[in-house]
Amino acid sequence: MSVIGDNIRKNRLKNNLTTRDLAQKIGVSHTAVNKFEKGLLSPNKQMIRKMARIFKVKTQKLVLDTSSLVDIKNIEFRDEERITKKNKELIEYIAKEELEKYSNLLEYFPEERFLSFDPEKYREEIFSHEDIEEKAANIREKLGAGNMAVFSLTELLENNGLIIIFAESVDGFSAQEGYIQEKYLFVTLRKEKTEEEQRYLLASELARIVFDIKNPDLDTEDVNNEFASSFLMSRELIIKDTGERRKKISFFELDELCRKYRLPGTIIIKRLRDLKIISEAEKTRLHNHVKDKSEGPSDETEIKNEKSDKYKKMVLEAVLEKYIDYKKGAKFLNMLEKDFLCLIDEKK
Predict the structure, then answer these.
(1) How many other β-carbons are positioned within 10 Å of the β-carbon of residue 342?
(2) Three-state SS for 289?
(3) Are 42 and 10 in contact (CB under 8 A)?
(4) Phi/psi of residue 167, each to 5°?
(5) Are 147 and 236 in contact (CB under 8 A)?
(6) pTM of the prediction?
(7) How many CA atoms lie within 13 A of 277 on its CB side?
(8) Of 238, 274, 244, 235, nearest in space to 257 by CA
(9) What pLDDT is recorded for position 251?
(10) Which of 91, 109, 289, 310 has its CA 20 to 30 A from that of 329?
């Protein structure tokens, strides 16, 4: 496959277009598009410009080889058997496109300016479910989270060196991890519908990175999900909120817990039961309430998803520390120069 052919295919997949869709848009046969992608036929300049407009990229993005800008190592997929080859290729492309920006930007900083997330620093061995509570507390301590509620898990992990990328939903995809420049660990996660789901998925993926499960009888997903609950809701803090034993939890109190910990009601209820704060009967009662609520009118309260601001912060720092000028900073963030200057003024 040629450089142009590879770039056409990746951008076509990213825009969810078939070869017939693209062919129709640029006025050629789908056979011609297939030949473009396989390097058997070269599109002329007019065709390249048309495709660049359709993909909303610069023409250089189709003709230049950017593969050497970032070297992604040791990529692993969660639930890999459920993702198609096409979707796997798409996710790799999305991740690589984002990581190219990080790689380019890092070249302007002193070599040791940023931490790299070292999984071995946080490594914990798991032999049974009883280990998870203690290990979650250990990892919270190592990350600097203590026993307080984690208001932004993304920010916490990024401050400890992890690069996090949120990708649009792709069938079969849950999460992916690897290394940029053989040093910086990154995680690509599917973008969830709500903040609660996003936080829980990110915490589960953290367990996948740092846990060494020694017992083959343990289900990895069960362990990771149990860790997510323990990590995001420390035993000490939730007992402080509810007490050690409760006959009833009011629906109002449950909603308050959901807001505080920014997690779905079903996860909160399971955590309360796992800690034996509530009985199985009370768990069922609360579950029925959550189920009835979900089937009723939708809650129009705006929920802000976990998002990564790391790249934006890095660009602003590079400009303020005079590693790059504001024109290059605007280009990194794909902003108009006047808008970027306003942003800089806000952050000074």
Answers:
(1) 11
(2) helix
(3) no
(4) -110, 150
(5) yes
(6) 0.74
(7) 20
(8) 238
(9) 94
(10) 91
User: Any idea which residue has 């779905």 for tokens?
Assistant: 264
Is residue 93 within 8 A of residue 10, CB to CB? The reply is: yes
Q: Contact at 8 Å (CB) between 196 and 153?
A: no
Considering only residues 32 and 2, tell me which one the structure prediction assigns the higher pLDDT: 32
Say which DSSP state 305 is in: P
With tokens 């800008």, the residue in question is: 69
Contact between residue 117 and residue 94 where contact means Cβ atoms under 8 Å apart: no
* Residue that wins the pLDDT comparison between 255 and 66: 255
What is the mean pLDDT of the segment spanning 294-302? 48
Identify which of 312, 311, 310 has the alpha carbon closest to the alpha carbon of residue 346. Answer: 312
Closest CA to 285 of 250, 235, 320, 322: 250
By the 8 A CB rule, do 213 and 205 touch? Answer: no
Residue in this structure with the two tokens 């200057």, named with its chain if needed: 341
- Per residue, the 3-state secondary structure of 23-63, as one string, reads HHHHCCCHHHHHHHHHCCCCCCHHHHHHHHHHHCCCCHHHH
- d(CA 143, CA 130) in angstroms, rounded, equals 21
State the Cα–Cα distance between residues 16 and 28, nearest whole angstrom: 18
Q: Which residue has the higher pLDDT, 197 or 301?
A: 197
- Asked if residues 80 and 220 have their Cβ atoms less than 8 Å apart, the reply is no
Angle between helical axes of 251-261 and 280-295 (0-180°, round to 10) = 80
Residue pair 99/163 in contact (Cβ under 8 Å)? The answer is yes
Structure tokens at 268: 């909160």
Distance, CA of 148 to CA of 190 (rounded, Å): 27
pLDDT band at 302 (very low <50, low <70, confident <90, very high): very low
DSSP conformational letter for 290: H
Checking if the pLDDT of 297 tops 50, the result is no
Percent of the chain with pLDDT over 70: 91
Integer Cα distance of 230 and 225 in angstroms: 9
Question: For 72, phi and psi rounded to 5 degrees?
Answer: -90, 125
